TrEMBL record:
CDD domains: ATase. It holds the Pfam family DNA_binding_1. This is Methylated-DNA-[protein]-cysteine S-methyltransferase DNA binding domain-containing protein. Keywords: DNA damage. Residues 142-156 have a biased composition (Low complexity). SUPFAM superfamilies: Methylated DNA-protein cysteine methyltransferase, C-terminal domain (SSF46767). Signal peptide: none annotated. The lineage of its organism: Bacteria, Bacillati, Actinomycetota, Actinomycetes, Kitasatosporales. The keyword Cytoplasm does not apply. It comes from Streptomyces stramineus. Residues 36-94 form the Methylated-DNA-[protein]-cysteine S-methyltransferase DNA binding domain. Gene3D superfamilies: Winged helix-like DNA-binding domain superfamily/Winged helix DNA-binding domain. It comes from the Bacteria. Residues 132-156 are annotated as: Disordered.
Length: 156
């Protein structure tokens, strides 16, 4: 039985991972998300366009779990949120989704570093020093909300 206030999966921001395959193949949406997944995805939705948080940043902001747990949530349910805004700490683009992520980054104006000569001119990386968001409400000029989603507050 779904919890009160639990959100059902929807088309959201485009699919990736296990959930996307289920929905695309007509096996239907998942009835409810685990509570931790709801909180992780709510943080992902807070990240302003053109900014990113690392898996570890999200876990620290929530005050529970760690980078691997956040990564697992994003792998299973990331298509429900702007998944390209939750990234590896080294700024490397998500393996297997590089071109889709790069399209989002360019559209949103996310700071990028050009690929190094040793990378053979391949994909750029995120310029983490400029792209990283600290999770502070109102910490971005484009964020006028001043608060997060209901039930999700930063760990202090």
């Amino acid at each position: 039985m779904p919890r009160a206030g639990a959100r059902a999966l929807s088309a959201g921001y485009g699919r990736m991972g296990r959930v996307s395959e289920d929905v695309r193949e007509g096996r239907g949406p998942v009835a409810e998300l685990p509570e931790y997944a709801e909180r992780v995805l709510a943080v992902a939705e807070l990240i302003p366009p053109g900014r990113v948080m690392t898996y570890g940043d999200v876990a620290e902001w929530l005050g529970e779990g760690g980078p691997r747990q956040v990564g697992r949530v994003m792998a299973l349910y990331g298509g429900l949120a702007p998944w390209w805004r939750v990234v590896r700490s080294d700024g490397a683009l998500l393996p297997g989704h590089e071109l889709r992520a790069l399209g989002h980054y360019r559209e949103e104006g996310t700071p990028l570093r050009e690929a190094t000569r040793s990378a053979g001119g391949h994909l750029p990386r995120l310029a983490m020093a400029r792209a990283r968001w600290d999770g502070t409400p109102g910490g971005d000029p484009g964020d006028a909300s001043g608060s997060g989603p209901a039930g999700v507050t930063p760990h202090t």
